[in-house]
């Protein structure tokens, strides 16, 4: 029996990487999936991958940093499915890799607008719907870079720290309303975002892996499996939690 039959999930950033793997993982467990992102071809591709698995999905083009678009996306979801059981807020960008004094102001604004304001906007409208239903689970994708300082990625790091703080605050506010809200902090995961880091820094995969206690780059499914588990009834007593999934890096 698939545990999420009849359940509806929204995955932002669902057109690639962690968001795509998470969309597929929810579909395999029987959920109806709304795949959201800015680039139509990418989200439609994920939708088709779910269709090929025999699952049900729709793709919604939306920029999570624009309030009106997030509001409209939520309206479309409720019109179509009548509810939203789970949300995984994975949309994000890496921002410019540079020391703090060399980061352009517009890059600061864009990184914060997508990575932090975007998560807040999504939660704002997701929580409103979940309050109406009397239940829901949200998982926000932060990063191990949000747990401390990151040279050459100060703004990205700050945005991901903010996601942890938003998650914990909202978890406390809505725990008594049967809405659970957790954050996942991935380490290095093999996605287009990490490929960009390899390309821009010249750091090789083997050098990266040598720094990871488990000695491998993570697979997007390592994150997707944890997100679906956090949404499941097996995790029903977990809220405000910050789950680190990094092959042991943060344990040092
Ligand atoms: P990715 O493949 O680049 O995925 C990011 C997705 O977010 C893309 O599909 C992108 O598609 C979407 N997106 C970006 N800006 C958006 C916006 N304004 N509105 C809607 N969608 C937007 O990278 P990923 O590694 O899977 O990243 C997923 C999440 O994991 C991010 O939050 C990232 O910070 C986090 N993370 C990744 C790693 C890693 O090593 N890969 C580690 C820690 C945390 P469009 O541009 O087409 O919208």
TrEMBL record:
PROSITE patterns: ADH_SHORT. Keywords: Oxidoreductase. Gene3D superfamilies: NAD(P)-binding Rossmann-like Domain. GO terms for molecular function: oxidoreductase activity. The keyword Oxidoreductase applies. InterPro entries: NAD(P)-bd_dom_sf, Sc_DH/Rdtase_CS, SDR_fam. SUPFAM superfamilies: NAD(P)-binding Rossmann-fold domains (SSF51735). One of its GO terms (biological process) is bile acid metabolic process. PANTHER family: BLR0893 PROTEIN, DEHYDROGENASES, SHORT CHAIN. Belongs to the short-chain dehydrogenases/reductases (SDR) family. This is NAD(P)-dependent dehydrogenase (Short-subunit alcohol dehydrogenase family). It comes from Planifilum fimeticola.
